[in-house]
Specification:
Elements: E1 4-5, H1 10-20, H2 25-32, H3 36-43, E2 49-50, H4 51-60, H5 65-76, H6 86-98
Antiparallel strand pairs: 1-2
Helix pairs in contact: 1-5, 2-3, 4-5, 5-6
């Protein structure tokens, strides 16, 4: 089974998470034991993300995979991030709770 997922703009979310953590591309690539080019390809949406890759990146960012995945989905489906929708509010609360 192919567990790669494609979420439009996922790379920009990964980049935001990395910069929010105060890490350079080199820093995060080093934590992952990857070359910088591979990480850059994920951040530029040139490589599809697998659940395993998302989990590796989350761990390297000292985060749980679940809120990272939810952030990726919220970016792809803005209604999931809208504070005007009940689902959006619930997901925001879930992400906030998981990242405490």
């Amino acid at each position: 089974m192919d567990d790669r997922i494609t979420i439009a703009g996922a790379g920009s979310v990964l980049r935001q998470l990395r910069t929010k953590a105060g890490l350079s591309l080199d820093d995060l690539a080093g934590r992952l034991d990857w070359d910088k080019g591979r990480l850059s390809k994920y951040e530029n949406d040139q490589l599809g993300l697998s659940l395993d890759v998302i989990e590796q990146i989350a761990v390297a960012l000292d985060q749980r995979a679940e809120p990272v995945i939810l952030r990726l989905l919220q970016h792809r489906y803005p209604s999931l991030a809208s504070p005007r929708s009940k689902v959006g509010r619930l997901l925001r609360e879930a992400v906030d709770e998981m990242t405490r």
